[in-house]
Each structure stands twice: as C-alpha cells, then as structure tokens.
Amino acid sequence: MALLSIRNLTTIFNCEEGQLKACSNVSLDINPGQTLGLIGETGCGKSVLGMSVLRLLPGNAVTNGQIIYNNQDLLSLAEKEICKVRGSEIGFLPQSPATSLNPVLSIGEQLMEGLQLHRGIVKEKARIIAQDILRSLGLKDSARTSAEYPHQLSGGMKQRVLAAISISGQPSLLIADEPTKGLDAVNRIQVVDLLRQLSRKTGASLLLITHDLKVAAALCDEIAVMYSGEIVEKGPAEQVLNNPLHPYTQGLVASLPERGLYPIPGHSPALLDDIPGCRFYSRCPVGNEKCKCQPVTNREVDGVHVRCMYVDQSGGAQQRIYGRGFQSEAV
Amino acid sequence: MKPGETLGLVGESGSGKSTVARTMLGLIPPSSGQVYFQGQEVLTANGRMKKEFCGKMQIIFQHPESALNPRMKIYESLIEPMLIHKQNLSREEMKSKSRKLLQQVGLSEEHLTRYPHELSGGQIQRVVLARVLSLSPQFLVADEPTSMLDASVQAQVLRILKQIQVENGIGLLFISHDIEVVSWMSDRIAVMYKGQIVESAPAEELCQNPLHPYSRLLVEAFSSLEKPSAKQVWVKDEKIDNASRCHYYSQCPQAGPACRQRPVLRETGAEHYTACWLL
Predict the structure, then answer these.
(1) Per residue in B142-155, pLDDT tens?
(2) What CA–CA distance (Å, rounded) separates B108 from B119?
(3) What's the CA gap between B75 and B78, in Å, rounded?
(4) Which end of chain A, N or C, is more open, meaning fewer C-beta atoms within 10 Å of its C-beta?
(5) Which of B103, B225, B235 to mutate to test the interface with A (most CBs of A within 10 A)?
(6) Which value does ipTM take for this structure?
(7) Closest of A205, A201, A204, A244 to residue A224, by C-alpha
(8) What is the mean pLDDT of chain A?
(9) Rounded to the nearest 5°, which phi and psi values hold at A306?
C-alpha cells in the first residue's frame, strides 16, 4: 500500500488578477522506501505541490482533493494535528541552505529543538543524539559543529545540517525541494550522495522536487513530470528519461547539453489562463485542432501514465520528434 | 584569446573564475599583472580610452534578477548605454535600434514597455544580451549566464548567444561550472583550480583526454552522477594553500615528492597545456 496518496489535488491561489491554478487534478502515490522525482521547469507548480502536502501555503491558497497519509486525510486535519505530522512523520529539506538556518542559534540548538519537540527527548540526551546524527552524516567533529553558528559553516556543511534536522524527527517521508539548485559539480555530487545515504539509513521515502534531470536519474525509482500545474507523464525513472512519451518530456530531455541542447520553442502559459484543451498545445510540435479544444485525459502505455492524445492515436511509443532539423528553426 | 574565439572557463565555485573575468574588465584592481586588448594595456587606461574599452569589452552577469534596474522600463535600460556612449541618435533611431536588438535575441516590441519584474529569468538574460549588443562589443564575458535557468530555457539562451557571437565575430569568455555546457559552447577550455589555470586545451581534446588529475575528476563527475560513487571521495577543500607546493597536493591521488614545487603550465600535447609534474 502506498505511504502517501495524493488524489485529485487542486491548489488555487486567489490573487488580484484572478484565480491562479498552481496544481490541477494531481494524483500521485509514493510507496514505502521509494524515491519519487517531481521534475519540471520553474513555475510549473512542483514546489507548491510539496508545500500542499505539508500545508505550508500562504493564506490565499485553497486546496481541494485528498492527501491520504496513514489512513488520514492531511487536508482535513486540524492545525494542531498537522503540526504533529510535520517533522515527525513528513520531514522537509528546504531549498537554499544559506538562508534556511536561524543565524542567531547554534547548530546544536536548532537540531535539539526538533528532537525535544517531536520525540520528547530531554535536553541532555537530545544533545548527545544531535551529535550522533551529525556524525552519521559525515560531520566528524560533531561536538565543535554543534557549538558553531551557521555563518561559520560552508555551504556543503549547512546542507548536511539541514539534512540532519529534517531526519531528526525520524520521518517516514522526506520532501526535498530543489536540493541541488545553483550548485557546482562538487557540491551536486555531495548532495546526491547525502540523499542516497539518508534514504538508505532511515528507510524513508523521498519526494525529490528538482529540475535537474541528472540528479533525478541518479536517485529516483519513479518520475513524475509536471507542466503548467499538471502531471503530464509518470512512470519508472529509466523509462521516462530514456524513452519519454509526452512531447514535453521529450523536449526536456533534448534540451540537455549532452543531448544537443535543443530548446522547446515558446514558453509555458500563465497559470492564470484557463485553457480548454492541452496546456502544452502552443509549444507542441505534433498538436492538432483536437488537442487545442478537447480536454486531455490520462492514458497508460506500458506502465507509464501519459497525458497526451497523440500517444493514444499512434498506439504506442512515438518516434523522437526533437532533432536537429526541427529545432534549428525554433531559435 | 583570438578574435571571435570562445574560451570556456570551468572550475568549482570559489576557484576564481569570476575574479579573473572582473579583473580583466577592470572591475577589480589586480595586485599585479597586465591585460592587453588589441595590443593596448586596459587596466591603466583612463578618461576617453577607458570609456572606449568599456564599450568594446562587455559582461553578462550570473543573476538575472539583479541585472536590470527594477525602476526602469526595458526600453530605458536598453538605450542607457547608447546615451552614455554618445552615439548621437535621435529618439526615433534609438527606438528602432532597440526594437531591432530585441528581435535579434528573440523578443518582441511589446517587451519594450515592460518592467524587469514582469519578465522571466530567461527573458531578462536576453534583454541583457541585447543591451550589450547595442555597443557592438568585440569581447564579451558571460559569467555563468544560465546557471539559474531551467534546462530548456538555458538551451534557448545559449543558442541565441552562440548565434550572435558567431554572426558578429565576438570573442567570448564563457564561464560556467557545467563542463557539458562549456564543451558545447567553446572552441577551447581552460580549467581553473584555486586561482590557477591547471589545464587548457581545445574543447574536444579536453573532454576526451583530460590530463590533469583535477580535470579528469571534473569530466568524470558529470558522467558518473548516475552510478554510486565508490571510487574517489570528492572533498571540497576551500582553503588556499599558501605553501609553495601544488594547490592540488592534498587532494591528488598521485601526488609525489615532485609536487612539493608548484607546477607551471607546460605543453603536453598539440595546443594542450597542463600544470602537473606527473605528465
């Protein structure tokens, strides 16, 4: 049985300009011990999806649907109840290590806070456990590190400390939001190693939100591709990345430098726009009139769920549509 | 650098890539050394000469969100360099020139009246490129222009940059920590480690036959992310070693007694220079 089931989740922000639909009808399952990658470009709603699960959205957000965790719907829990889930059931590894730690508290204090709060451990014992966790994540001089303040640590060390905090409540699910954004090769490898360690050591499931396809390929069992608030493709990681079915996923893979750096022409529609048909239509190289006006439904092809009518018509995997000939005009 | 050539500069963050670029343009005063542009010394120039160099040598910065004045419309940002460099254009001429520049980078006229916060990161980097082009520079530094952008947007911006560079014969210093992007963009690649160029070679040669142990690690790092890395633990050492030994001494798996002397760049192949005693 799935550890976390998201069913028809729709997250809408009410703003001055109208209703901004950041997630529409998203359904996902994460199994125990599994790593699910959520990939897509900036502004496609992947972070909002993560925040919807933790219910950490601003006041103008409205969430509909169901998020089932441990036989309870997280969306219908009282604020007091969800506080118990955050941290101890579902951990969160935030985006930028530089700004996510409290600058005026020592590392030890920040780690102990979670231990005392979520696991009810007394202060003296918490101090010892905190140092154990730091050591297990490769910060060898843990006594010194826990007495230090965030500005005394390097970026990689801060990331480790954040990881330590996120697992201190022994969560069974960890949500990591863009852990490698803007990092160079060295740090990226370290973070990938760190996440691998975390899931191996704690056995926790991981929801990895990223736009880095290589990191997703290195870590994920399953991958869900998000575009303009919708999940457009979902399936085993290898299949989705090596043999993408949806034209958007194909474009995403083709835009990697080692695949020739072929961009997808145009840009994604504003989340404010209400589009009757496929949201990718304006950029799609194979779309037709039907895609423009009819709502698209999910189809299943060889265990991969894909939201595209074209895949259905051709009755299976379509040939690669991105290549030198097609894309050279796109620029 | 030769005219019209693209030199890629790679290295981890903190290795000094941006410092090199900024020093070249006179944005940071150097402790010692000279920079020559078309045979003339750049850093000691002042007055009219300095302004002329500023027009010919331009830079695109990493962070799109801080590259444009948030209180200026795109049009105002675009014509600012034309005004500063007294190109003596009428209002109409400036308008049509900025329209043309935006077209060159794949944007349209409607963007002229927008403010920076109304554009996406990729669009801003294109506006910045258009603004740079208004001075027809002969040398351009692109300091990690796409590291904050998504893969698809990165592909768009890089293709435009490459196209414009080739069309106008601009010499480009392309800085990035992504060796795959660099190898796609560049004719020649230089690898930087702790403030020193440790290897420099034609792009293809460097990617297929890296000689310096650090470059080898860098090239492998990008291809081996998929496999669990059991072979070499890559620790980042941020201290600059002031002793006279090789900067890579403490990390290098092959370091020997010869490495206690700091190596200099030597020719180790056709147009291939490496700073390592072990070759």
Answers:
(1) 999 988 888 888 99
(2) 12
(3) 5
(4) N
(5) B225
(6) 0.76
(7) A244
(8) 88
(9) -140, 140
